[in-house]
Predict the 3D structure of the following.
Amino acid sequence: MFELIQVCNENLLHYCEYEKAFNTDLNQYQSRIYPLKDAEHLRWYHIRADKKYIGAIWLEKSAPDDFAVLGIFIADKNFRDKGIGKRAIEQIIENDLQFINTDKIVLRVREENKRAIACYNSVGFKETLKYKKEKLNIVEMIWEKSVRFTYLNKANLKTVASDIFNILADNMEIIAPTGNKREDDFKCWCEGISKSLQKDKRQIILIMCNLKIIGYFQYYINESTFVMEEIQIKSSYQGRNIFRELYGYIITNINENIKYVEAYANKANVKSIGILEHIGLTKIGMNKNGNSFHFRGKYEDLLKWYESKGDKKC
């Protein structure tokens, strides 16, 4: 287990150990262990694992740059090559990039640091430039937010089941918690989704940001009706116009003979209810359990909403 703890005056003393490591061996891999003091935006954290402060990570953005710079190091040798750096990068991107007003991150790494380059590649960074600086061979890498959609290969459900269920569970804990243990809910959900996906006309679309699953959309085609059964997006990615991009992808992949659209929204999910009404659907009743509203509308109205490019609400 690891956690990110915001750097402040009260815990800055841990940098004494980091400086010792920098003077011993870290300086072989990087030129600095502190973020820029004059950065316009800064998100700066200690990395703590097993109750030990083992390193730091930060995102800094300086004016007038349109990108943030990532810095990270693991000072304690005992915690290197354990995947902690990768998870720390994923966490700071997911939780903090939104506060820096950019969708682009740049980092610079020494070319001989193959371990670090492999780690950065694994979270979606791409090499864009190589150059020399003070006799050092430097590789510049860039991460840009890139949302894409892909149909789930049903044979691979087990490999992504935990990821997509956790997105669902995290969202529902806020809206309508079950009160059950998560592992029990997961087991029940797996049984249900495995059975429902046996129908050819039921599909799941994975919503990806770079190499990571950030949401999913489940639907069913019932003759001339497009039934939107479930859409879940990680909370940190909500409100970023992903719905519109998703529907654009769907429209190009479903049957042209669709005439109607149906959907359900939990009565406590005010946001989903608002979106369904916004795209032209109307409440026509409740589901069998009485905990969700049943919506229906014309497919042509969904197309009109999608084509109204000036509308960015969803």
